[in-house]
Amino acid sequence: MSLTFHPVCWRIASLAHDPTWISQGQIASGAGLGANLWLTVDYLTLTPHNKISGLYDCEPSSADPLTQALLISANKCDIAELTHPLSTTIHFADLNGDGRTEYLYVDGSGGVTAFLNLGGPDNGPNAARISWLPQGVIASGVGANRSSVRFGDLNGDGRAEYIYVNTDGSVEAYLNLGGPDNGANAAKVSCLPQGTIATGVGQGRDNVVVADINGDRRADYLASSRTDGSTMA
Predict the structure, then answer these.
(1) How far apart are alpha carbons 144 and 205 in whole angstroms?
(2) Long-range pairs, 190-195, Cβ under 8 A, ≥24
(3) Number of C-beta neighbours around residue 32 at 10 A
(4) Cross-referenced InterPro entries, in alphabetical order (predicted)?
(5) From start to end of 3-62, where are the E strands?
(6) Which of the pair, 207 or 152, is modelled with greater confidence?
(7) Selection from 210, 206, 34, 165 nearest residue 107 by Cα
(8) Burial (0-12, 13-18, 19+ Cβ within 10 Å), 27
(9) Would the CA dihedral through 35, 165, 45, 80 be positive or negative?
């Protein structure tokens, strides 16, 4: 199955101070898996809280995808829903260590569907017009909200680990053991539980990012303030 992603991709043609970008058009369709942005809580119903004051409580249920209708809604609970952080279903991370990032879709339970990056048709102006090979569900998830899932190479072997961030900012990791071959199944990776690898720094789940900030090829734990952008590493 071929994949073409809705956002337009631009390829850097030069590493000079002022890089040149070459449009690559759509490179992935999303494969019909669903919306990318989801709200982390869904307020569907207004329940009378105090009949005298007229105040209402909003009862949360499962998360909603972000839609135009939700953005323009005047419903009090829809407005309350939009105050919560967004989570994303689409991630890009290198699973097989070939230096190319795979297309990853994370479902509502933290399960991951992967598409192996086969590269572009040439190493020139079309290099980012990627072909994708479906790998199916490569991780069943841990029953977590998709907003808990991160990907990052923790041990520097070039393969991204599956990382689960708890609501208190603590982190559990699953070591990427690689796929069964270096060909058509390269992104069908196996994962080995590592338990809790970070206890957190007092920042919640939505503040936590994993990224390599010192160039040693190992992802670091970062906690950024949502109010002023200050970051602890």
Answers:
(1) 12
(2) 191/139, 191/161, 191/162, 194/161
(3) 7
(4) FG-GAP, Integrin_alpha_N
(5) 8-12, 21-26, 37-39, 42-50, 55-61
(6) 152
(7) 34
(8) buried
(9) negative
- pLDDT confidence of residue 47: 52
Taking CA atoms, 23 is separated from 20, 110, 140, in Å, by 10, 32, 35
pLDDT band for 215, please (50, 70, 90 cuts).
very high
How far, in Å, CA of 215 to CA of 226, rounded?
25
The identity of residue 96, as a single letter, is N
User: And the tokens for 11?
Assistant: 């390829």
DSSP state of 80: H
**Which residue did the predictor score with more confidence, 191 or 47?**
191
Write out the two tokens for 95: 């699973």
Q: Which two tokens stand for residue 129?
A: 């017009």
List of residues 6+ apart from 219 with CB closer than 8 A: 152, 153, 154, 161, 210, 211, 212
| Among the listed residues 84, 72, 75, the one whose alpha carbon sits nearest the alpha carbon of residue 40 | 84
Q: To which residue do tokens 């994303």 refer?
A: 88
Count of CB atoms situated within 10 Å of the CB of 230: 8
The burial of 99, by beta-carbon neighbours within 10 Å (0-12 exposed, 13-18 middle, 19 or more buried), is given as: exposed
**Lookup: tokens for 119:** 């590269």
User: Listing from the earlier edge strand, what are the strands of the sheet with 102-106?
Assistant: 90-93, 102-106, 112-117, 132-139
Tens digit of pLDDT for each residue in 19-33?
A: 788 899 888 887 777
Query: Which burial class, exposed, middle or buried, applies to 159 when counting CB atoms under 10 A from its CB (0-12, 13-18, 19+)?
Result: buried
